[in-house]
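=== Per-residue structure ===
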Amino acid sequence: MSARLRHIALIGIGAAFIALTANIAVWMPNNPVPITGQTLSVLVVGGALGLRRGAMSIAFYLVLGFFLPVYANQAHGLGTIAGFGARGFTMSPVVAT
């Protein structure tokens, strides 16, 4: 396997891991925002893949969300990313890596 193909595969696996864990949610009482597994998976992917591959994996996850329901609570689309209050939450995983 070439190095380029390995990098692409790792980026795809990282994005898939974030998408799978984004739908694991814990609702806290008196809090409208759930705690999702996405938070942990972003840190794991960033730590395991490094700066460039981690950021590319998260960017690929964000692009997947335009077309597929991969965000928390099966949300997707531009309205989810550009919605009020979501701007900081969509860019913070990229900064976290």
Remarks:
- The mean pLDDT is 81.
